[in-house]
Design goal:
Blueprint (H helix, E strand, L loop, with lengths): L1 H5 L6 E9 L3 H7 L6 E10 L2 E11 H6 L7 H14 L3 E9 L2 H4 L11 E9 L5 E10 L17
Antiparallel strand pairs: 1-2, 2-3, 3-6, 4-5, 5-6
């Protein structure tokens, strides 16, 4: 999960809200499919009850039935989005960029006194290369860290 991989803060809780709506043209384009409804999920990552990062995800309603997710139990939806979907052998794409919309997008909370955020646009595909989830993850730039390791499989002789 991008927030857990690239953020220096560690969450001790995640607040989740969701709603079901007809898809807008922009959401249909991001999912690259027509769906009768979309589940829009907001997640605020917190440490000691203080929000520090935010994720916004779009799921076609069909995915909820296919994955047998009971929306009466938000903890199951949270577990699926935070862990379950990553445990499957799906393909995913992350596009990282800079954004100043983190506090605006997170609406319910101010995440940072700074306006700079790392925006990770994430797309998760099933085995037929259909989009399952489209997400935007916002991490305040002062909490962002990326570490790249390269291992050489050839040992010196």
């Amino acid at each position: 999960h991008p927030v857990h991989h690239y953020c220096t803060e560690t969450s001790d809780s995640v607040e989740l809200d969701f709603r079901i709506e007809p898809p807008t043209k922009a959401i249909s384009q991001s999912l690259k499919r027509q769906t009768p409804a979309v589940v829009i999920v907001d997640r605020w990552y917190k440490h000691k009850n203080i929000p520090y990062a935010y994720s916004l995800s779009f799921l076609p309603i069909e995915l909820i039935g296919d994955e047998h997710l009971d929306l009466n139990h938000q903890d199951l939806l949270l577990e699926y989005l935070e862990e379950g979907i990553y445990q499957k052998s799906y393909d995913y794409q992350w596009i990282c960029s800079h954004s100043t919309a983190g506090n605006f997008t997170a609406t319910k909370y101010t995440l940072s006194s700074h306006e700079s955020f790392l925006l990770i646009q994430e797309t998760i595909y099933n085995n037929e290369h259909e989009i399952l989830v489209s997400s935007k993850h916002y991490i305040p730039i002062q909490l962002f860290r990326i570490e790249i390791k390269e291992y050489n499989s050839q040992k010196p002789v």
